[in-house]
Amino acid sequence: MRTNDAQMLVLCALTDGPLHGYAINAAIEQVSGHRLGPGSLYGALARLEAKQLVKPLEGKGRQRPVCLTPAGRELLEQEAHSMARLSGRVFESAVPDEISYLDRLAATDTARSYKSVMLHALDARPGQTVLDLGCGPGTDLSTLAKAVSPSGRVIGIDSSQKMVEQARRRTEGLSAVEVQLGDIHTLPLEDGSIDRARTERVLQHAADPARALAEARRVLRPGGRLVMGEPDWDSLTIDYPDIEVSRAYTRHVTDKVVRNGVIGRQLARLAPDAGFAVLAVVPVTSVFRDVQAADQVLGLQRNTERAVSAGYLSALASQRWLDDLATGPFFAAVTLYVVVAEATS
């Protein structure tokens, strides 16, 4: 019996005690966002009673409360354990190491797609100085070094000592690459010393994106180029029969999980205020058809659990959601915007 079955919805509604028909439907609506039709509700009750999973109690007038039998409660517990085992096989429960996560993301077709767009837009040339703002473990530094050749210079800056050390190890043999510990809000660089700059999925976490953009403008020479690749998490869509549950999940990610959840759409407005002319905005939409591939990027179970704790989803709705994502055809999509900007004089 699946948790999106009418009978299972009725059983779940009776978990906290006896209810009559109207109250059962109200409880179902509270956790799932919709009511069962009268035929579905009373048909489910009749089938459950025939299976001895619920039993009627004495009531007043037309109200006829029912309660779970021991067999019904046992079935619920079995279903919960079954779904937990299924989720454990499909979804990643532990938070991955940050470097491992970034390496995993960089290896996906999704990342390769928008990185290619960003590299082309950056148009880095031999002899230029390129700045990678928030370079992480050095994922893109070698690619940038090839673009500027040995006569150029690549500077990676990150606020994490762990990331800086890893980036230095990975670029140890590249004379054109220098990695520094620093804050993108106060860059340790001279005015007008940079020809090209990039930031990828960094401004979504920045304490003050506007200040970071102003710093990027300060260190870029007039006519220098900044290429930004940032997601708009409000664009995250995950197919699920109850659209309100999907919307609640996306709202939680946008509101609580990512500091600047809609930065992707804001960049074309913020950049001119920092002294840039916006040359282009290129949307890159990532589509996921495999639930485990999506989970590697989106952390579906972890963020669903957070959504429950934050009050965006009920426990029952979240379990039905994960059950459906794990077993049914899967579709999800999210858009990242590549914004190309030029430093004005």
TrEMBL record:
UniProt-listed CDD domains: AdoMet_MTases (cd02440)
Tree of life domain: Bacteria
Keywords: Methyltransferase, Transferase
UniProt-listed InterPro entries: Methyltranfer_dom (IPR025714), SAM-dependent_MTases_sf (IPR029063), Tscrpt_reg_PadR_N (IPR005149), WH-like_DNA-bd_sf (IPR036388), WH_DNA-bd_sf (IPR036390)
Any GO MF annotation of the entry: methyltransferase activity
Domain Methyltransferase residues, every copy: 126-232
GO BP: any one term: methylation
Residues in Transcription regulator PadR N-terminal domain copies: 10-77
PANTHER family assigned: METHYLTRANSFERASE (PTHR43591), SLR0407 PROTEIN (PTHR43591:SF78)
Protein name (database record): Methyltransferase domain-containing protein
Species of the source: Streptomyces sanglieri
